[in-house]
Amino acid sequence: MPDSPALVESRQFGVRHIPSLRPLGWLARGWRDLMRCPAPGLMHGLAAAVFGAVVMMAGRHHVWLLAGAFSAFLLVAPLLATGLYAISRALERDRPADVGTALAAWQPDGRLMVFGLLLAFAGVGWMLTSASLLLGLARVPILTPQDFLRVVVLGGQPWLFEIWLGLGGLLAAPVFASSVIAIPLLLDRKVGVMAAVLTSWRVVQTHPLPMALWALLLTVLTGLGMATLMLGLIVVVPWLGHASWHAYRDLVSTRGLEEMP
């Protein structure tokens, strides 16, 4: 049976080989981009911090919803960083980079809209799954962050945290594998959504250890940003966004392929 058109298109993109600790280099280069052009990145970070604070205030008495919402943020974050990818691309090409560069990345693009809808469905799906799990399996009401910490995390109810974490991982892993390279690739090259997703999966399959480290770094640093009453997100969000662009550039060979304007 012949290969699908998306798979054939994906094979245009080569996967470069990298050492296991290369994700630390992505963080270094992402920090360099943030320092070279701080204003757009800090605006992204401030927007994320404000949104996070609003969600935290709205869900302070419904922590079952809050836990799912913050997890869902990790799923859609790659799309929210599209403007930051554009900044890093401009810096890489020695072109002017400013707030306008980031905003221009959000011009109507059906491919990014489709991918955004898919990520939104995944995020909402996890929020509903998380809420249903905590409400359905918890023996006592979980209303506050203290309840979540005592009952779920610290083992007030055996296996509940493990089940919640395991289900989250089952959803997050394929979403991460589908989006980690796909969104910057869609911004950078004229490629279909399915081909970009297949390329992202090929990268993860080729480099399971570096990509697992990268996923861990993304999760831990985002968690630290949230743990500082969201203030840390002002820096963490743009830092990781710029670093994600360098992950794409390190991992995918696009030589000779048509660029997006």
Characterize the overall form: globular
- How many domains comprise the coordinates? 1
- Low-confidence stretches are none
Give the structural class: mainly alpha
Approximate strand percentage: under 5%
Q: Average pLDDT value?
A: 85
Order of helices and strands: HEHHHHHHHHHHHHE
Rounded to the nearest angstrom, the distance between the terminal CA atoms is 36 Å
Helix content: over 70%
Notes on the protein architecture:
The protein contains 13 helices and 2 strands. The two termini are 36 Å apart. The protein has a two-stranded antiparallel ribbon with strand order 1-2. It is mainly alpha-helical. The protein has one domain (5-253). Pfam families: DUF2189. This is DUF2189 domain-containing protein. The chain crosses the membrane at residues 39-58, 64-87, 112-143, 163-187, 208-241. Keywords: Membrane, Transmembrane, Transmembrane helix. InterPro entries: DUF2189.
Structural topology:
Blueprint (H helix, E strand, L loop, with lengths): L4 H6 L3 E2 L6 H15 L1 H21 L4 H18 L1 H11 L6 H6 L5 H28 L7 H9 L6 H20 L2 H7 L4 H14 L1 H20 L5 H19 E2 L8
Antiparallel strand pairs: 1-2
Question: Short description, anyone?
Answer:
With 261 residues, the chain is mainly α. The chain is built from 13 helices and two strands.
Notable traits:
mainly alpha; 2 strands; 261 residues; single chain; two-stranded antiparallel ribbon; 13 helices
